[in-house]
């Protein structure tokens, strides 16, 4: 059903693109037929990029992933640009109709009339403008998405935090999305950057992979080189449950020295002082008998010390706040990934990036270090964040 709905939406988008970029800019004939076939080919590549990784495998679908997903990004911005130009197009069309064209011989073809020629000129000018803007945006966005993530330090004050933890540093990374477009080199770069921060603890907040251990195990292998005195921890995101056996990744991460927190918690200690680090499964785990369980994750904690919760989706903060969590670490949103689509994300999530507060719970949302779908980021550069903790006076 999901694929049927998605295919229908993409089909309607491409029908609109065909109308504005092909039909309105050409006369009937060979050129229109060629451009129609090209546009249909782009749609086919996009559908292949979406479907093949889950049907034939990540490696086997790599040939379609780059062109298909790049076209996805380009088609999205072509759609937006053309919609923005619609009012301009309507104004000019009215201007053309109000004009007084010179008389046309009775036997002249309609396609050669001055009004038709002016319409073609305006349609082509609009198509060129939309194409230039879209290519420029996607080029910039691809360079941003494929470049190194920004490293930012954010101070966090926690109530009940023992002074022994002043300056304790948590490196937060999410949404790495290893898959057909991001492989071992992507992981190696992230591991190097995280290690260079000198963080005391690393929190990987879900959506690490888009494929099976057999396909992406080598790409995840560099995670064994993460170096943090208090360890590296992981919670599932929704994409971990898109494979047939999501639990195989939990076993693989344990083998690599990354500790999953599956509705559980662990104490982080400095001498006699401690705070609790907890993790809950993603909401998508409900379909795999692996649902989030806040009672299990938080029920046994000492209320005299602060709690830091790892939960992939920011929307889970309402449950966290009801249970007195001090700080929730999340991802999932990609910061919106491609402006202006972050408005849609903001409509369903309490925050899309950065630090905010819900009730008495602080929420930090990472923009993520990878991308999903188009390898494009506009207005939402990738990041790795180091949270520097201090007691709340």
TrEMBL record:
Cofactor: a divalent metal cation
Domain (Calcineurin-like phosphoesterase) ranges: 168-335
Database matches in InterPro entries: Calcineurin-like_PHP (IPR004843), Metallo-depent_PP-like (IPR029052), Metallophosphoesterase_sf (IPR051158)
UniProt entry keywords in alphabetical sequence: Hydrolase, Membrane, Metal-binding, Transmembrane, Transmembrane helix
A single BP term in Gene Ontology: lipid A biosynthetic process
SUPFAM superfamilies xref list: Metallo-dependent phosphatases
Transmembrane residue ranges: 6-22, 34-52, 64-85, 121-146
A single cellular component GO annotation: membrane
UniProt keyword Kinase present: no
UniProt record similarity statement: Belongs to the metallophosphoesterase superfamily.
Protein name (database record): Metallophosphatase
Species assigned in the record: Mycolicibacterium litorale
Lineage of origin: Bacteria, Bacillati, Actinomycetota, Actinomycetes, Mycobacteriales
